[in-house]
Amino acid sequence: MKIPVCPIIIAIIILLTVQAGTTVVSAEVGPEYTVKAAMVRNFAKFTRWPDDSVSRQKKNTMCLCLMGDESILESFAGIGGKTVKGRTIKLKWVDNLAGLTDCDLLFVNRETRANMKRIMEAVKSRPVLTIGETGEFTRAGGMITFFLKQGRIRFRINPEAVRRSGLKLSSSLLELAAIVHPSRGDHRQ
């Protein structure tokens, strides 16, 4: 049986960053969203959905919804059709709040900044792993926020939002992230 190389490399990167205690992945401007897409897939690997969630009932697919600038679709296409925990990732472009009903993961591009609160309200308290890339995202209730620092992609996790959704994140993932608590006034970005 041939084992795909890309997931192995990503897993090694995650393991090495756990060992080093850092939350970085190198990225230049060009491949930024390709790296983010791979990281989103890995976030799904380290997330557990509640047993009674719609996600767990759809045993063979995992719906990754994308909002914002449509140009990111090409970068995320590389993870479409890949599997996580035996389920195939299905990409879905969403341009309105009604389209968020069957999302297991939601990536919110920085272009949606003006609608961030409404988007987060639409998935609030549902088991949808939300990932964004602005400071507003975390303050609006987003769970994982990407940011660039010195040419590297890093991420922060809002454990309060994760807890409200009923999702569980692996301690390995939490160790890699900077932890933020918006309810305590911690709004770093």
Note down, in words, how this protein is organized.
This protein has helices at 5-20, 32-45, 54-57, 72-76, 116-123, 135-139, 159-165, 171-176, and strands at 25-26, 47-48, 61-67, 83-84, 87-93, 105-108, 129-132, 144-149, 152-157, 168-169, 178-179. It has 189 residues and is of the alpha/beta class. The chain has one domain (5-184): Aspartate Aminotransferase, domain 2 (3-Layer(aba) Sandwich), CATH 3.40.640. It starts with a helix and ends in a 10-residue tail after the last strand. Mean pLDDT is 82; it is low at 5-30.
Q: Share of helix among residues?
A: 25-40%
* Broad structural category: alpha/beta
CATH topology: Aspartate Aminotransferase, domain 2
Q: Mind summarizing the main beta sheet?
A: 9 strands, mixed
CATH architecture: 3-Layer(aba) Sandwich
Order of helices and strands: HEHEHEHEEEHEHEEHEHE
CATH class: Alpha Beta
Query: Strand-residue fraction?
Result: 15-25%
* Intertermini distance: 43 Å
User: How would you describe the shape?
Assistant: globular
SS element count, helices: 8
Jot down its keywords:
189 residues; alpha/beta; Aspartate Aminotransferase, domain 2; 9-stranded mixed beta sheet; two-stranded antiparallel ribbon; 11 strands; 34% helix; 23% strand; globular
Short synopsis of the structure:
The protein is an alpha/beta fold and 189 residues long.
